[in-house]
User: Fold these one by one.
Assistant:
Number 1:
Amino acid sequence: MLKMYDFAAIERKWQSRWERDRLYRTADAPETRKYYSMEMLPYPSGDLHVGHAKNYAFGDAVARMMRMLGYNVLHPMGWDAFGLPAENAAIDRGIDPAVWTTENILNMRRQIRLMGTSYDWSREIATCEPEFYRWNQWLFLRLFERGLAYKREAPVNWCPHDRTVLANEQVIDGRCWRCEHLVERRNLSQWFLRITAYADRLVADLDRLGGWPERTRTMQRNWIGRSEGVAVTFAVEGLDVPIEVFTTRADTIYGATFLAVAPEHRIVQSLRAIVSADRAVAIDRFVKELSSKSELERTSLMEKQGVFTGAYAIHPLSRERVPIWLGNYVLAEYGGGALMGVPAHDERDFDFATKHGIPIVQVILPESAAAATPFDKPFVEDGRLIASAEFSEMSSVRAREAIAARLAAMGAGEPRVTYKLRDWLISRQRYWGTPIPIVYCEACGEVAVPDEELPILLPPRERATGEGSPLGSICAFVNTTCPKCGGPARRETDTMDTFFESSWYFLRYLDPHNDRQPWDPQRAAQWMPVDQYIGGAEHAVLHLLYSRFFYKFFHDEGWVTGSDEPFERLFHQGLVLRDGDKMSKSRGNVVGIDETAERYGVDAMRLFLMYVTPPEETSNWTDAGISGRVRLLNRIWRACERHFDEKPTAGPMPAAETDAEKALLRAVHVVAKSAIDETMTPRFHYNTTIAKLDELVNLMTAAAPQPASPALRYGVQMLPILIAPFAPHIAEELWERLGNETSVHLQRYPEPDARALTVEEITLVVQVNGKVRARIPAPAGVGEEEALALALADPNVRAHIDGKELRKRIYVPDKLLNLVA
RNA sequence: GCCCAGAUGGCGGAAUUGGUAGACGCGCUGGUUUCAGGUACCAGUGGUGGCAACACCGUGGGGGUUCGAGUCCCUUUCUGGGCACCA
């Protein structure tokens, strides 16, 4: 590949010039319309490949477009710098995680700068720095004060490989989201954040997030899993403690032929005491067998197992005796850990009853069916009630209300909303994270560290073994005094989930050097919400849900105003594949940024990533593809080169003399219109914009008007502005060589001019019976009768009409005439 | 199993509200420049038939609505993503 222009020198030159001139510093200028544009902050894993580059190329193009459209754009970058890979690398290689992280940040910052991105680096943050994580601790204490952070013992997900617990959101198909090892179940005392207190708002407000992809909203909705139903109380024979179950199908209550209780349910020990010795033994055996099984093993992988406790409950409406079972498919943490089994109308209950010989009683009939018929699978839809006392003949919908009302009147039930969402477990038994600011005092118990003692610094690590509690083994850290009574106390030795810091970092960018507050609420009022957030879809229910929770809390505290949603619009970019495979070191198919920049130049790389596919699609990296973009840049250079010695002619659009000039002026404005439309829609399909740019360059080179043509000189002057958001370096160099003095990136993007965009001549498509028979040039705005005359003058059209009578005529102005004969 | 998105030349992909299918690029073919290769430039490039004008076929398969369907409806296959004992 011959280099027509020296991209390496140009890219180097402008990157340092922009930095010297602080071109991309953002001022807090409240008088200008703001635009907060952000890409998800990266984990500093070491090296960037073109998959990352795609994300930054689009984010940067959007930020540059908005600047050139006159917005005050905030476009920051930072590092999600706490986390396991650093710690694991430290254990493997015997280096300090801080050193490993810092080195990676240095390299990745270099690569992101190499891409010619327009970040305001004066706002850069790294979450592992005490200046940042002290505010993690501060926010934790505020949550603690409000009762939104609490410690409790609970069955939790334990990843044996990463040697730490995980939040539910971080377990994918029963496996650790990072290392993919099967998680185990342990009972541990851990810190939780009460995200469930916000469940209702988190699900309700999804409806307002019109700028989010529908599938992301659906995933969050499913994850929160809001269900409306009834909590029903069943009295237990021989016991004064009742069992409460949750059901969304109160209409099926007369079909309840058993109760199933989770083995962890508190009532199990009471039941055990009132049943026969052999039942007690069976209960013990069942509970013990399941105690070590993970939720995945118990629910998805195992068959429905259970054991009859020997005890009976009393049906609140029919007063019949209902046997109480323990079941492995009953989740301890949902719906109170107990359910009423209605085998005729629930798949799972049906399986369980069939397996254990429990009676199946049909109480709902399909609307169409006349009478109860034998069946081999449960009927789970709504229908009409039978065998349900005075509720018989009612529809399911009516019966649900009537039965709920009856139960409520009897004091045996109440309406209840239940969520699948559980509280967010944030304790991690690892070193490289934010220490949780709590001490344990023998006299005072759990005590919050006072604000003025923050930050609790992460102590230097003497030796990393990967065994035991990392902070727990550092005596100087653990042993402290109680802030309340001054007596001896021990520090909490767990660190925080790194999703804690990524749930609010976007606020720190607004005020990154503030040492009195995490951010100034006035700055938040000015800049929030984030107007456009760009990042991978893999965080649909992790980071994006936690951030919404935090932001609602901040809003309730008055630290942010306006909307209580942090991200106005959200965009997920697609992956970049190589040879149809995901890029990975083990496959050896990683396309690195450094090599690509060196071979083809950064502008070509950015152009290719935006051109090859719409941003949301998965794109495939090809060397042939990028050389096409190098070619385009060369042709752009040559188109401008002939005009380097001319004086700048930037000014109003000149009048076009010839058809070629008209076409050229039109092409300029077609590009501008496309770029603006794609930015504002906001669809970001710059692939179509760049295709139109190709067409413009074709016009400027192939069928170029005379070099002296004012239209051509106008096109040449506009070209660097048009490409500035996409190929910022060559744009700047051409702009300078064409005799301009202020940066091309400070120019206004051209307003699409209606005069340039209108066409004077159209192609009239003439169809006969719906088939195209002629394409006739005609003046724009041609009337129907003139169009008909033109069509009938065409020999091919006449041949197809062939003397037949015209029965119908459809005329689409400036487009098409269809003659039906 | 359930829900969502998608399927367009050899390839990546274009195509407001139904109105010229295949823009643009890659690849390929022929030509010009060159000692040659590459680069660059010019022309061609959905399939079939035809010297040509042109005709027929063509947006995963089948059916429908319409003057007209890549676009709307029904049905089916495949691909990608999500959910999957949440009572």
Number 2:
Amino acid sequence: MTSEQSKSDISRARILDAAAKMFRQKGYAATTLIEIARAAGMQAGSLYYHFGSKDELLEEVLDIGMRRVHEAVEESQERLPADSSHRDRIRVAVEAHLTTLLKHDDYTSANIRIFGQVPEEVQQHHIRQRDAYAELWRHIFTKAQKSGALSSDVNLGVVRMLLMGALNWSVEWYRPGRTSIQAIADHMCLMLFNGVGIEEPAQSRENETVT
Amino acid sequence: MTSEQSKSDISRARILDAAAKMFRQKGYAATTLIEIARAAGMQAGSLYYHFGSKDELLEEVLDIGMRRVHEAVEESQERLPADSSHRDRIRVAVEAHLTTLLKHDDYTSANIRIFGQVPEEVQQHHIRQRDAYAELWRHIFTKAQKSGALSSDVNLGVVRMLLMGALNWSVEWYRPGRTSIQAIADHMCLMLFNGVGIEEPAQSRENETVT
DNA sequence: TCGTAAATCTAATGTACGTTCGAAACATGT
DNA sequence: ACATGTTTCGAACGTACATTAGATTTACGA
């Protein structure tokens, strides 16, 4: 009881880490407590000293995952100078979301991957938290649009969902070592702000801007 | 044996429909054969007259789902006049993908939602099919870039994955009746080609183009 | 060194599920 | 009406799993 990290805390953390990792990989229903326990270095029965049930364990994984990405994006905004451009505000939010997702965070990616297939009762418990995170983004986007940084004649809700989708889906294809997280964020922002299309030189008017 | 649709074929289809629907909703492992059978109007044991195992049933659902979206996008290209712009080619591909996904197709959305959490052996069986679909998109994008319709200094692979993510993620949030599928496709293409950003009037140079 | 509480183990329990198989019901051609 | 093939039923089997509870070990203060 002397160290700030009691043995119980350490075991708890190991269990959560293992659970997040496996939930993310195989989904909730397909992951067995035996596997989680083994990955955490103990027997299945021992899990019940730390968690009341498999569902409870799941809920904590989901909670941690959402909290982490929420805090990361929130902090990205607070770290920014007060007079930053709205493009920069969105840019760092994108970077924060993506980095949390792809850099060692099994919790957040587990949340994103499995949430839709989790027992309905568990989903209900987390709707508030999800809404709060959505609200954070909605706020950033609305401010940007009102101040003229985003086109005023687009449906911001749709744009936001498409953006979140593009980012979230990266957990399905991103593999460390190929494309950097920064490069993905850059491409995302480029698409969002400027698009990657070029005036089609159909009849060809002026060809100065293109290399 | 007289009708072109034998009783067996009808039952088979009912089972597949039920399976696709439930796989999509609850995931593979969490869906029981008892539920599928009930939704198809029969007993669990009867499923085995039509399918060798739960995995086999899953594989057929996945196969149908991928085939449908592949064919839809392929046909969208063939239907187009040969001299169509590359923007139009991409636009109809986006529309085809999205429409297949969101309009009654539990098969395709089941595939997209659960593929990452399906037994590894089953995944292996479908990699070829997935690659073929990716190749279809890669081809469309590469042609567009080579002919100057897409910026030449972006990583096309990343752009393509971000686009697919934005589209695929719609199965997580789209609900019929709110935003039309067409509107989503339009927003996606607008983002892809032009972006939704507006020149920030930070120090304000020329304000002619903005309303 | 001892005693107590914390942490884990081990074995058992009940249940839900995938699967099997012979019997029953159904359809169809003669 | 019969016979044969098709389709579904219903009950049973084995297994894998979440969960429980008492025994056992470990950590640690007195």
